[in-house]
Amino acid sequence: MIRAAVFCLALWLAAPALAQSVTVRSGAHDGFDRLVIDLPRRLDYRTEAGARDATFVFDVPILRFDISAVFARIGRNRLRALAAPDGQGRLRLDLACDCRLNPFWHGEAMLVIDIADPPPPSLTPPLTPRSAARLGPAAPSPATEALAARLDPALAPESEPDVARVALSPDLDRMHSILLHQLGRAASQGLVMTAPEARQVHLATPSSDPPAPAPVAVDAQAARPADPIALRAQTSMDRDVTEGGRAARSPVPSEPDCPAPALLDVPSWGNPVTLPEDMGRLYRDLYGEFDAINPHVAHDLARFYIHHGFGAEARQILTLADAPNADTRLLRDLAQLVDQMPLSANSPLHDATGCGEPAVLWALLARGPLDAALTFDHGALQRSFAALPAGLRRGLGPGLVRNLVAVGHADTAQHLQRVIERIAAPGEAGTGLARADLAAHTAGPDMAVLAEVSRSNTLHAAEALALAIEAALLRGAPVAVDQAQLAGAYAHELRDTEIGDRLAVAQVAALAAAGAFDEAANAFDRRASDRAQPVARAMAESLLREAVRAADDLTFLRYVLSDRFMPPEAMSDQLVGAIARRLLDAGFADAADRVLRPVRSDPALRLLRAEIALALQRPAEADLALLDLNGPDADRLRARARSLRGDHASAQALFAASDALSEADRAALYTRDPKALARASDPLLHEVAHLLRGLSNPVPAAVAPLDQSVALLAETALARATLARLLAGTPRPEDDDR
C-alpha cells in the first residue's frame, strides 16, 4: 500500500513538469522548412499520415504545444497549418504540397521535423547492382565505429546475419546490411533524408516482435560467404577519417559570392508589436540544462537585436555562441552596420554589390563612401531599403543617401530620402543633413537646414557646422566669429578624428575670412604641433589663401615671407601661384622668385616663372621656363625676352603672331628699320618709315643750294609734326605698365 502511494505521489509530482508549455520553433531553409520541438526528454511517439497531413501522437497527452510563433519565420507554401489540441499530446501538420517529412532526434530532448519539397521525377530507371570481385565494401575504421556508436547506439554494426537469409539471397542480403549500416550513419550525420514514399515514419517501439522466419535447410556451399558485390557506400565523414588527407581530392567549386537571402532577411527577424514577449521567450530558451548556451537561440536573439537596431547587444550575444562560423561572422557584420561602424575589407558583404535584394543594400552600407564607377541594381536597393524596419530606415538611411549623392546617384537618393521623410521625426539631424546634400546637388546647400542642424545637440551638429562654414567660404560669404569659435570647440572635443580635423581647418579658414588673422594663427599653433600632418597643411593653406585674398599688404607680407606656417615647396600649385602673383604685382619680384624657386610643372606656373625672370632682367631664364609651351601668352613672353636681348625684329614678329599689335609696333620702332615700320599697324609709324627713307636718300647735286635748303626745311617740319603726333599717342615711361 505504501509503495502504491509513493508511486502515485511520484506521478503527481512529475505531471506539472510534463505539463509545461513545449515551444515549437521554426526556420526556413533552402528546399525545406524545419520545426524544432523542445521536449522535456525523449518521448515515444507515432505518426499518423494522411494524403496531405500528418499527426504526431505522443505517449504523454498532457503536453501543451506553444505554436504561436511558428509562421513568423516560415511561409505557408509547405506547411499550410499547424494545430495542437490541448490535453491530447497531438501535433497535426496540414501540408500544402506532397512534401516529405523527416523527423529525427537532436541531442537529448529536441525533436526535429524537416518538411522538404517533393523530389523531381526521375528520368532514368534504377540500375541493378552487379557483382565485381575487385570492389568490396570498405571496412569501417575504429574511429568510424566509435563515431557511429556515439551518434546513436542503434546505428552500431549489426550482429551476425541470419544464415537462412544469407542462403536465400547472399548478394542482396549483404547489400541490405551494408546499406542499413552506412545510410543509418549518414542519416545521423544529416547527410540524407527519407524518400517521399517513406513519409509515414513510425519511430515508436513496436508492441510485439514480428514472427521469426521458418528455418531453411542449407548446405555448406550455400552458407559460404558471398563474393564481394559491386557496392561501396562511404560518407564524407568516413572518407575524411579513413583517408586522413593522404590522397589529394579534387578542388571543391567555390561558393557563389552572393549570400543566401535568408541570411540577410532582417525584416523577418522581429516584430515591434511582440517585442517584450519575443525577448522574454528568447532569453528563456537561451540557457539549457546546467546553464549551457543554446547556440541556435543565441543566433535567433542576435537576429532579434539586429532587427530592432541594437548592434552592440547583438555582438555581445554572439560572443556567447559556439566557435564562430560563416553565419556568426555575417551576423556580426550586420550588427556593426546597424551601429554604423565600418567593416573590414575582407567582409563578404563588400563583394555583394552585384547581388540582388537584400544583399545589395548591405553591400553598399558595408562599403561606406562609394566609387563613382560602381554599378548595382538600383531597383533592388530601393525595395530592400523600403522593407527595412522603421528604426533601421531612420538610422541607416541618411548616410546611404549622402553616399549616393556624392557619386551622382541623385534619383535613387531622392527616392530613399522620400521613404525616410515619411517616418522621420521633425528636426531629425541625420535626415536634415541628407536633405541638405540633396539640395546642394541641385541648387546649392540649404543653409537654413544646415544652421538648424548645427544648433541641435546631436552627433550630426558638428558635421552640419563644417558644411555650413565650407559652403559660405566657397561662395565668398562672411562667416560669423561665433561660428568659427564653435567650430574650434567641436574640433577640440572631436580631436584626432576625421570630423575633428575638418572642423579645425574650418575654424582657421573662418577666422581668416573674417579678418582675424592673428586669432587664426594662434588656432593653427594650438592644433598643428606637427607641421607634417595633413591637418596642419590644410590649416596653413586655408590661412594663407585668405591672406592672399583679403589681407592688407603688410599682413600679407608678414605671413607669407616667413616659414611659420609652411615652406613654399609644401604648398599646392594653386596657392603658390596666388602668392607669387601678388608678390610680383606688388613689386617684390625677388620674393616671388624665392616662392617659385622649386621647379613646378604646371604650365600656368611656368608662365609666371618666365614673367618673374623678365622682371628680374633674366631673359635666358625666361626662355628656359617657356620651353615646349605654345600659345599667345607664351609668345608674348618670348617676344619680351627677345626685346631684352635687343632682337627687336624677332620680338615684332612674335608680338604680331600673338595679336599684341601695340607691342609689335613698339618693337618695330626700336628696330629703326623703314621696312619694319611700314608693316606696323599704326599709320604714324608709316610716316616715320617715310621720313627714314627720305633721310637715307641724298639730295641730287644738280639742285641749287637754295632749293636744297627749302626741301630740308620742309622735311624737318614734316618730321617734327610726325614726331609730335607720335609722342602724343605714346604714354610716358612713368605711365607705362611695363
Description:
It is a single chain. Among the domains are: 21-116, Immunoglobulin-like, CATH 2.60.40.3500; 140-194, no CATH class; 630-735, no CATH class. 51% of the residues lie in helices and 7% in strands. The protein contains 32 helices and 9 strands. Strands 5-1-2-9-8 form a 5-stranded mixed β-sheet, with no helix packed on it. A 4-stranded antiparallel β-sheet has the order 3-4-7-6, with no helix packed on it. Helix 8 (295-307) runs parallel beside helix 10, helix 9 packs antiparallel against helix 10 and helix 13 (390-406) runs parallel beside helix 15 (429-443). The longest helix is centred in the C-terminal third of the chain and has 24 residues, at 705-728. It is elongated, with a radius of gyration of 46 Å. The N and C termini lie far apart (132 Å).
Q: What is the number of helical segments per DSSP (H or I, 4+ residues)?
A: 32
Major pleated sheet: 5 strands, mixed
Compute the separation of the termini in Å. Answer: 132 Å
How many β-strands, per DSSP?
A: 9
Helix content: 40-55%
* Share of β-strand residues: 5-15%
Radius of gyration: 46 Å
Roughly what is the average pLDDT, rounded to an integer? Answer: 73
Quick structural overview:
The protein is an alpha+beta fold and 738 residues long. Among the domains are: 21-116, Sandwich (Immunoglobulin-like), CATH 2.60.40.3500; 140-194, no CATH class; 630-735, no CATH class.
Features:
738 residues; alpha+beta; Immunoglobulin-like; 5-stranded mixed β-sheet; 4-stranded antiparallel β-sheet; 32 helices
